[in-house]
């Protein structure tokens, strides 16, 4: 396994471990201190990465510091957004989570250009300064409307006994075993089909651009026709597009078409996760529940990365392996149906109609 892959997997591991802990701290103290800490740690991680030259240095900088810093920024940002909205919660959270896809459009192009012009070290340092500026803005502007209170338990046992929450988390986890595979391997697949490195990275940027739109428009629709009502079909369709397009895409035009459509429909999956968790949770438990859910999901992303690297993607054999993300997306969408059928009109249930 390469150094980059090892660091990335360890980063995902730390993101999984700290989720419930960060959620508990958010519920008790709010987002400001967590975001400030995350900004400092994330920036330090990238600065240290720019200086790293040995295996253990990359592991410490990217594998440990980056995962912790990212977790301290991601979980509070999503949880805080959920506390300010009720009727238009999906729209607000879709706009918030669209920022990650916007970064997915900008950073591949930015880094590819900077690597050629200023080298690896300064390319990573420039990206660190960009992250620092964005982190300062988020620290100063993100807030929670909930009052500070005494810290609760590190693990909310009551949430583990909530069938709706656990089934939703299970469905999300199953989907995450497959839905990231195109994002991880679209660049390599493009190169294996004769595209240049630049065009292959453009495929990833186009996929993320489609995801930006897919995280905003479906979220806006979800507040009117139901969040689970959109999450289920959009998740299933994203898997179907792997079968309909990716398995048969070998030209630039076909790959670009696939990147746009998969990015759009999978974007709804990412946008509606937090809104759906908030919809089946009491507002004072939003932080810890999001942390617990994303901890499981992050752990399963680790499994997906290992599985994708060792079995799903083999150059020239993608036709035989795209069925994996398809089945996982479809299986996950089936699990989403269960919370929809329980308590269809309750204030904290997974309503089939938007909350007023």
Automatic annotation (TrEMBL):
<dbReference type="GO" id="GO:0016020">
    <property type="term" value="C:membrane"/>
</dbReference>
<feature type="transmembrane region" description="Helical">
    <location>
        <begin position="198"/>
        <end position="217"/>
    </location>
</feature>
<keyword id="KW-0472">Membrane</keyword>
<dbReference type="GO" id="GO:0022857">
    <property type="term" value="F:transmembrane transporter activity"/>
</dbReference>
<comment type="similarity">
    <text>Belongs to the major facilitator superfamily. Monocarboxylate porter (TC 2.A.1.13) family.</text>
</comment>
<protein>
    <recommendedName>
        <fullName>Major facilitator superfamily (MFS) profile domain-containing protein</fullName>
    </recommendedName>
</protein>
<feature type="transmembrane region" description="Helical">
    <location>
        <begin position="253"/>
        <end position="274"/>
    </location>
</feature>
<keyword id="KW-0812">Transmembrane</keyword>
<feature type="transmembrane region" description="Helical">
    <location>
        <begin position="58"/>
        <end position="78"/>
    </location>
</feature>
<dbReference type="InterPro" id="IPR036259">
    <property type="entry name" value="MFS_trans_sf"/>
</dbReference>
<feature type="transmembrane region" description="Helical">
    <location>
        <begin position="90"/>
        <end position="110"/>
    </location>
</feature>
<dbReference type="InterPro" id="IPR011701">
    <property type="entry name" value="MFS"/>
</dbReference>
<feature type="transmembrane region" description="Helical">
    <location>
        <begin position="286"/>
        <end position="303"/>
    </location>
</feature>
<dbReference type="Pfam" id="PF07690">
    <property type="entry name" value="MFS_1"/>
</dbReference>
<feature type="transmembrane region" description="Helical">
    <location>
        <begin position="163"/>
        <end position="186"/>
    </location>
</feature>
<dbReference type="InterPro" id="IPR050327">
    <property type="entry name" value="Proton-linked_MCT"/>
</dbReference>
<feature type="transmembrane region" description="Helical">
    <location>
        <begin position="229"/>
        <end position="247"/>
    </location>
</feature>
<keyword id="KW-1133">Transmembrane helix</keyword>
<feature type="transmembrane region" description="Helical">
    <location>
        <begin position="122"/>
        <end position="142"/>
    </location>
</feature>
